[in-house]
C-alpha cells in the first residue's frame, strides 16, 4: 500500500495541475501575492514563517512562498505557488488513502476517497492551485487522520509531522479534536495527537496575541446559511455552472435542491444503521462537519454575497459560488463509500430472500459508485475559475524588468495578482535584474 500511496501523491499532483487552466496557473491569487510572497520578500523566507495573518499562522503557504523567493527565478513565482498548492492536494489525497484504512480493508473505497480529494467539482473555482486556500484540504484530512492507527512507529511520526503542519496552517482543525478521544490510550496514536495539539496550541497563542480583525457586517441569517449550503455544498456536486444552479433553485420551487441532497441523506442513514462503530463516528463527523464548516466560515467572514435569502432575481439566476462549499461537498461525497463498504457483514445469507436483498443492495451500490465517479470526471476541467482573466505574472515581470533598465536598483515596482488591484507584490529593480 505504501507504493500505491506514493503513486497517488505523484499522480494526484499532476492531475491537479492539469485541472488548472494555464492562465489561472500563471496568476497569483489574493494572499499569495500581498501576504505570503510580499512578506517573504520584505522579511526573508524564514522570519515570514512566524508572521500571523487574520488571527492565525499559515505555515505551509509561507513555506511554499519562501521556497519560491529563495530558490526560484522571480519569473516562475506564480507557477511555483500554484504547483506547490497542487502538490499539497496530492499529498493530502495520499494521506486520506492511507488513513481511511481505519475504516476499510480493501483498496477501492480508499482510492475513491483519494479521488474525492482530487476531483471535487468546486475546488478549481477558488481553492485549487493557490496557497491562500489550501488550508481547506487539511480540514478534509482531519477526521481520517485523527481516527487512524499507524501501523509502525515510523509511520506514526510521519503522520504526526503531517498533523503538526496541518495544525500550524489551519486553526479550524480544532473542530475535530473530539475525535482524539477515540482509543485515546493507544500509544501508537500519540505522535499524531501530540504534534497536532502543539500546532493548535501555537495557533491559539497566535490568535490571542494577534486577534483576527472585527467585521462591521451583521451575521448571516439561518435562511441564507441553508440556501448557501445547498448551493455550494450540494448543488455544485451535480451542476457545473452558476447558471444551472440558479435555474434549479428558481424553477424547482425548493424541490430540486432537496432531491439533490436526498442521496446523501439516504447514504448516511443506511451506513449509520448497519455500520461499525468507527463507520458511525465517521458518518456523524462528516455530516455534522459539513454543516459546521460551511456555517462557521460564512459567519467568520460575513459578506453580502453570502446573504442568499435576500438576493435579487438577477442574483438568483447566477448565484455566487464560494470556496466554503469545497470541504462540505467532499464530506457529503464520502458518505457514499462509507455507506457501501463501512457496513457490518450479516451473519448469514441462507434465506433466499436475504440473498435477493443482498443482490439488489450490491446493484444499487455499484450504480451509486458509477454515478459518483461520473459526476467527478464530468467536471474534471472546470467551467471557470476566479483567475481566468489574470493578470498573468510573467508578462508583468517582463514589462517591469524593461521599466527597471533605466531606473536605480533600489526602485520599487508592484506586480499584481487577482482578484483586484489591491493584491500586489512589491519588489525592487535589483531583484528583477537578478533573474
Would you give an account of this structure?
The chain is mostly helical and 435 residues long. It has helices at residues 2-19, 22-25, 31-43, 45-48, 59-71, 77-99, 108-119, 123-126, 135-147, 153-167, 190-209, 222-238, 242-251, 255-274, 277-300, 313-317, 326-341, 352-378, 393-404, 429-434, and strands spanning 412-416, 424-428. Strands 1-2 form a two-stranded antiparallel ribbon. α15 (277-300) runs antiparallel to α17 (326-341). The longest helix is centred in the C-terminal third of the chain and has 27 residues, at 352-378.
In terms of topology, how is this protein built?
Layout: H1 2-19, H2 22-25, H3 31-43, H4 45-48, H5 59-71, H6 77-99, H7 108-119, H8 123-126, H9 135-147, H10 153-167, H11 190-209, H12 222-238, H13 242-251, H14 255-274, H15 277-300, H16 313-317, H17 326-341, H18 352-378, H19 393-404, E1 412-416, E2 424-428, H20 429-434
Antiparallel strand pairs: 1-2
Helix pairs in contact: 1-6, 1-7, 3-5, 5-6, 6-7, 6-9, 7-17, 9-10, 9-17, 10-11, 12-14, 12-17, 14-15, 14-17, 15-17, 17-18
